[in-house]
Amino acid sequence: MTTREGSLEAPQRHPIDWQNPEFYNEESVFKELHRVYDICHGCRRCFNLCNAFPMLFDAVDESSTGELDSVENKVLWDVVDQCYLCDMCFMTKCPYVPPHAFNLDFPHLMLRAKAVKFKKGEINFRDKLLSSTDTLGKLASIPVVVQVVNAVNKTPVARKLMDSMLGIHQDRKLPEYDSAKFRSTAELNESFAVKDGENTPGKVAIYATCYINYNEPGIGHDLLKILAHNEVPSKLVDKEACCGMPKLELGDLEAVAHLKEKNIPHLAKLAREGYAILTAVPSCTLMYKQELPLMFPNDADVKAVAEAMFDPFEYLMLRKTDGLLKTDFKQPLGKVSYHIPCHLRVQNMGQKTREMLQLIPDTKVTTVERCSGHDGTWGVKSEYFEHSMKIGKPVFKQMAASDPDYISSDCAIAGRHIQQGMGETRAEKQHPLTLLRIAYGL
To answer: For the whole model, what pTM was predicted?
Structure first.
């Protein structure tokens, strides 16, 4: 668990009381915003995490009294829009989180405020569209359609129109869609004997995620090759929808609940059958490990899924602990600049990806522990693009400093963002799972 100055106890998360009507009481939310902002203003340890805190602190410093009481109410709500729920303030910086008497959970207060704004209808078409990742993926990955979508996303004139009409920044490099969807093309192997370890189930179910399924299916195929090489039988989750993280970040908690009802029954069945459930997107893993259990604390199926859910490298390093991981690497990787994304750091499992990559002979891994500034859809939006690039600037510099052969992040979107921020570089961008597959010589 991350150590926090001034506290000898681990941070504790309270359940999200989102089904209580009082949760959406705007007056109550504003009162809590004022209480928490006042504490943050007096502390200021989080000044360098994202743009929410600098916006708040600048507003206070520029006010007539130099205190929160003279800051316009609109600014207090504007701060909410700057938070993209990375959770880093709660997990690494704040000395006032529960069990402290101040009981401060900044990200979940921001979530509550976003939920209030959503209930009031203060959400535009673009935000609803971008958060519907499954629907977008299904439409954009249709053969023929996919070529048009990918071409439009690279056309300057079209991007200017998207900027002016939709609010998707013209300079943001967008991921391509792939008509060869992962779930349609995955080559599974269930013929290996199940070898359970003390720490790991010996069979795996893959939750594809929207991004891997529609945008970068190669990452999913690399995971399957790695599992097959290690003689771990694998299968896909029978049916899946979006994990709900984009809707959570929007404050659409009813949509999160709806997606939970689609996903959890299939996942819970697998968990009870003794499968480890792997996702190659940290935000999806975090959704099932933390957010859904906090939204549905009394749901036994949600709890079972949370206990069976693994990050791929968390699982693989536990297989090593069990003496069941193959380390017959054939290809060195040289110098790797590796970025550990926020939604992986806050899972508090250590740096398993770095540990795995360091097992590869003649491979030097430089690890960057800082928010890249993109988030899922936040850095795509016109009004936040410049902020995302500014937040990511220290990461871009640190990633380039070692003149790496590869740049890599467990969050594929963060990897794309970092590559764009670095500009011209000889380094090749690859997901850590792809690097591991290369090292195995597969």
So the answer is: 0.93
